[in-house]
Amino acid sequence: MEEIGKVKKRREQTALEKRQHEEERELLARKRARAEFQDWQKKEDCAIPQFVANDDERKNQIQEPAEPEPPTLLEKFNLNKATGAMKEGDGVIGSVAEVNLDSQVEWLCDKYQPRKPKYVNAFHTGYEWNKYNRTHYDHENPPPKIVRGYKFNIFYPDMINRTETPTYTCEDDGSNGETCIIRFHAGSPYEDIAFRIVKKDWDVSHKKRIQEHV
Fold first, then answer.
1. Count of other CB atoms within 10 angstroms of residue 207
2. Residue 57 burial (C-beta neighbours within 10 Å; 0-12, 13-18, 19+)
3. 6-15 pLDDT, tens per residue?
4. Is 196 left (phi over 0), alpha (psi -120 to 50) or beta?
5. Residue of 146, 152, 107 lying closest to 128 (CA atoms)
């Protein structure tokens, strides 16, 4: 009778452990499904509408994707119990082998964040042989070099409204009468960008015009 009682007790213990393992697997499955749903919901929230009222409203709508929290010690322990004991030839897939799928997808909320455009600018210097310089200087003793021209290459690859042509304006540089401010505007998601240049009548013909890449 004592042996029968031990066998019965072992069966009850085995059934209890099996039921606990099933509950733990079900809990892990629910956590995984909830995490996948939250990840999908974040991607949906990051979608940028085609028309936005203003930049401030768009900033409020944009949310950076949150980093997943690492599992706690209790969750790791429960996972080990649910998956069973390790056998010979088994291995653990660690974080080194994990593929960051988010890095393979271009987030719309990152693409349309307000930012300064990239640019490659240059200026050209040379001699100006006006009447005064021809009188006081020669080719062996040339006058000081001055800025003869600028070249602005500004890139706008992610413009929301591609029918809008980037523009530029020249503004006064405060009390400095020798320089002015040239400001470039293209629209969302790019912020205006400005540079200080020498104030004079520049040749902005077709061959020497400012280049803006969209």
1. 5
2. exposed
3. 777 788 888 8
4. beta
5. 146
Token pair recorded at residue 181: 């401010």
8 A C-beta contact, residue 37 and residue 79: no
Cross-sheet strand order for the sheet of 118-126: 118-126, 146-155, 211-213
pLDDT per residue as tens digits for the range 92-126: 444 443 444 444 445 556 677 888 888 888 888 88
For residue 137, the model assigns a pLDDT of 92
Give the separation between CA 45 and CA 78, rounded to whole angstroms: 32
Instruction: Let me know the angle formed at the C-alpha of 196 by 193 and 200, rounded to the nearest 5 degrees.
Output: 125
Tokens matching residue 178: 């020798």
Calpha distance 26→31 (Å, rounded):
9
Write the pLDDT tens digit of every residue in 141-169.
999 988 888 888 889 988 888 888 899 98
Beta bridge partners of 155: 118, 213
10 Å Cβ neighbour count for 186? Answer: 22
The HSE-up count of residue 164 (CA atoms within 13 Å, CB side) is: 15
Which residue has 């974080």 as its token pair? 95
